[in-house]
Amino acid sequence: MSKRKKRATLSSTKEEQYKQTILELKHELYETRMDRDILKTLATITARDQERKQTK
Hints:
about 55 residues; mainly alpha; about 75% helix; rod-shaped
């Protein structure tokens, strides 16, 4: 019967968890900025369309 080797378990250190948290927050910030830019563009387009309708 062969002995099983113990598996090395990967435990995240505080530093790794900290880095992961930073990456997640950066990603969330990026998505939020993209949403903001899209909403700004949409507001501009909507305002232009309303101005065009009023001038006709």
